[in-house]
Amino acid sequence: MKLHIHSPKKALNKAFLKLKPERKQIDCFKANLNNMLGHVNEKESEEYHKNLVSRFLRETWYSPEFFINTKDRNDLVIHNGKDAKSPVGVIVETKKPANKAEMLRADNINTKAFHELVLYYMRERITNKNTDLKHLIATNLYEWFIFDVQLFEKLFAGNKAFVKDYTEFAEGRKAGKTTDFFYKEIAEPFIANIKTEISFTHFDIRIYYSSLKRGEDTKLIALYKTFSPQHLLKLPFTNDSNTLNKDFYTELLHIIGLTENKKGNKKLIERKQPKERNKGSLLENAIDQVDMLDKISYMDNPIQFGDNQEERLFNIGLELCITWINRILFLKLMEAQLLKYHNGDKSYEFLNIEKIKFFGGLGNLFFNVLAKTNEEREESARKEFSKVPYLNSSLFEVSEIEAKAIFIGNLRNDRTLP
After folding, report:
1. Average pLDDT, whole number, for the chain?
2. CA–CA separation, 225 vs 61, rounded Å?
3. Which is it for strands 258-263 and 68-71: parallel, antiparallel or unpaired?
4. Residue 49 CA to chain centroid, in angstroms?
5. 356-402 pLDDT tens trace
6. Tens-place pLDDT, residues 272-323
7. Strand order in 74-79's β-sheet?
8. Alpha carbon distances (Å) from 324 to 255, 318, 330, 401
9. pLDDT bracket for residue 239 (50, 70, 90)
10. pTM of whole model > 0.70?
11. What CA–CA distance (Å, rounded) separates 397 from 135?
C-alpha cells in the first residue's frame, strides 16, 4: 500500500483557494480554533473531544444551514441540509489525543479509527443507499485525516468481494457479529492487501500555532477553507464557472458534441448517444474527417487511442476538440482584455464572424497570425490582424495530434448545429 499525502493547500480547488475570505470569517475561524485547542484535555473522554469538534465546525461554518450531530454509532456526521432528514455528506470519527493506538498515523492508516470509517461508510453507502457522501474524516483534534469519498467508492463499495463480506456481516451470516470482528477479520486484512495508491489530506493543526499567535492570517487561509462546506460538502463557490455560467457550460458541451450524465454520485462527461448526435458539432465533424481520410491507418501506434476503431476515432476527435477549444477560449479572454485596455475600441476585436467566416480562418489565425511576429506574417494577415499580438506560446504550435490527424481547417463548413 502506497500512501500519498496532500497538504490542505494542495487538496483544495485552485480557483477556490484564490478567493480571499472576508475579514470577519477569518476572525471567527481564529477565535473558534483557539477555543477548541484551548479546551483540549487529554484526561477527558472521546465524547468530550467530539463535542469540541462539533462546536468548532458548527459555529465557524455550518450552523444553521447544515445539521451536525451523531448518527447511530457515528461520532459525528455533517448533513447536506438543515435537518437530520437530509442525507449525510461527511462522516467524522473522533479520538481523544491520548488514544494513539487507535488513531491513524501518517505512515499507517490500517488502524481501528480507519476501520470504523470504513464500516460507517459501508452502512451509509451500501445499507442506506446514500450516494451523497462527500468526505470522511478521522481526527484526535490535533491530527486530521481527510478522505475523498471517491477513494472509498473505488476501494470498498466498488469491490464486489468486500461488499459481499460486508453484506454477510451486516446480515449476521459471518462467524462473528461484533464490530471488532468486522475490524479485525474483514477490514484490516483487506486494507493490508490494497495495492493501489491511497491519497488523502493530512495535517497536524499544531503547526499553525505560531501563525495564530502572530496574526499571520494568510498562512491560515488554506486551513480555513479545508473545513468549509465548499470543500467538505463540495458546494459551488462564488466564481465556480459551472454555477455562475451554467448556460455557457451547457452550450460549450453542446458545441463540442458532449453531454453530462450523472451515474451514482459521479458526474461524467460523455459523447452524446447516437440518436442525439449532431453532425455539425466539433466532435462529430472531426471524427468524420479523421475516418474519411483514414488517418488512423497511418499512425505508428493507433492502439494508444483505444482497443477498437470506434474508441480510437472518439479519443482522437476529443483530443483535437480540446486543443481547439482551449485556443479559442484563451483568445476570447485575450480579446476581452485588449478591448478593456483600449477603452472598448472595436478595432481590437478579431474573433468574430466578420473576420473568421470558416474553420480555415481559425487555422490561419492560430498558425499564420498568433504564432508569427508581425514581420513574419503574410501581407494579408498583417493588414487584417494588425492589432493582434504575436504570442510566443506552445499553445499555437502545431500539436502532435494535429500533425498525425487533421487541422481545424479540415472540418466541413456546410454543417449546421441546432
Report:
1. 93
2. 10
3. unpaired
4. 31
5. 999 999 999 999 999 999 899 999 989 889 999 998 888 899 999 99
6. 999 999 999 999 999 999 999 999 998 988 888 999 999 999 999 999 999 9
7. 2-6, 197-204, 143-148, 135-139, 88-94, 74-79, 68-71
8. 12, 10, 10, 11
9. low
10. no
11. 41
Strands 135-139 and 88-94: parallel
Residues 6+ apart with CB under 8 A from 111: 101, 102, 103, 104, 105
Nearest Cα to Cα of residue 332 among 243, 409, 250, 248: 248
With helix as H, strand as E and coil as C, how does the chain read?
Answer: CEEEEECHHHHCCHHHHHCCCCHHHHHHHHHHHHHHHHCCCCCCCHHHHHHHHHHHHHHHHHCCCCCEEEECCEEEEEECCCCCCCCEEEEEEECCCCCCCCCCECCECCCHHHHHHHHHHHHHHHHCCCCCCCEEEEECCCEEEEEEHHHHHHHHHCCHHHHHHHHHHHCCCCCCCCHHHHHHHHHHHHHHCCCCEEEEEEEEHHHHHHHHHHCCHHHHHHHHHHCCHHHHCCCCCCCCHHHHCHHHHHHHHHHHCEEEEEECCEEEEEECCHHHCCCCCHHHHHHHHHHHCCCHHHCCCHHHHCCCHHHHHHHHHHHHHHHHHHHHHHHHHHHHHHHHHCCCCHHHCCCCCCCCCCHHHHHHHHHHHHCCCCCCCCHHHHHHCCCCCCCCCHHHCCCHHHHHCCCHHHCCCCCCCC
> Taking a C-beta distance cutoff of 8 angstroms, is the pair 216, 224 a contact?
no
Q: What is the dihedral of CA 224, 225, 230, 236, to 10 degrees?
A: 130
Determine contact, residues 232/78, Cβ cutoff 8 Å.
yes
* Amino acid 392: pLDDT: 84
| Preceding amide of 21 cis, omega within 30 | no
Cell numbers standing for residue 410: 479540415
- How many Å apart are CA 321 and CA 326, to the nearest integer? 8
Split at pLDDT 50, 70, 90, the class of 246 is confident
